[in-house]
Amino acid sequence: xxxxRHLAAVVVLVAVVVLxxxxxxxxxxxxxxxxxxxxxxxSIAPGRGPGIVVLQPGAKAGPGGPHGPVVxxxxxxxxGLSSMLDPVNLAVLRHTVVxxxxxxxxxxxxxxxxxxxxxxxxxxxxxxxxxxRRR
Amino acid sequence: xSGPPVTSPAxxxxxxxxxxxxxxxxxxxFWFDLVLLLGFTxxxxxxxxxxxxxxxxxxxxxxxxxxxxxxxxxxxxxxxxRLVSPRGHDKVIWLVNLALLFAMTLCVLSGILISRVAxxxxxxxxxxxxFWERMHALSAEVTxxxxxxxxxxxxxxxxxxxxxxxxxxxxxxxx
Lengths: 135, 175
Prior knowledge:
The complex is a heterodimer.
Chain A (H helix, E strand, L loop, with lengths): L1 H27 L6 H4 L3 E3 L8 E3 L25 H5 L4 H45 L1
Antiparallel strand pairs in A: 1-2
Chain B lengths: L8 H4 L3 H29 L1 H4 L1 H21 L1 H9 L6 H26 L4 H4 L8 H23 L2 H12 L9
Helix pairs in contact in B: 2-4, 4-6, 6-8
């Protein structure tokens, strides 16, 4: 029961963020940096069958967004596991891991130095107070 | 990451059942968070996974995010209430977590709206657009920056629990 209550609260919170995102698109659509380059003039043709992404007449198959202009054909789903097992693509995963590791290392170093500095300051305060107490 | 500490006063209580329960919860938090981190790392590496795995993993991460937040809802409430009292570290964690909530939610939402494999497979054809494509790329980059910060801010907890969970114990010996 407690879990469900918490889950409901989380769903409400996430729904608020989702609504904020939708409102952002509605009221300030086109307000994201680099959006002009991201457009590939793609559209899903009505009545063309499920999952087919077609280019509009005159549109070039440019970068087309973060994932490129992928044309998805209907039919049995291809999970693309062959590309996952290809060692060439491991560089992409390695790149992500390196970014995460660097950020983690930086934050840990900052946290450790902050703690050491606080400990030192406290130790200095204690040694400063000790003679005063003796008096 | 923001779960109960390994050695809480409740854990120190003599009741063995209570101790076992807290340890089990800590174990769940640790392994679940580790799976989330690995899942996000793989999902972000789009060139490694390919579109189908990227999308299905992203949807799974969306659900896992809900579960993660639900499991730590007590912490959210506790820390939000304490925000007025000055304690720097908790405030930083709270702000990072809030930013991460926004970034990850927008990332999953925009991912759903520009889905080309997973949702069409389920018979749903979302009409995304350049705004959502850009939003997906931006929020994913912000999330990539915030996830390691979120993890690193709890490095002492991770180290403590990790040591206990991964420590080699000879068979037949209890803790």
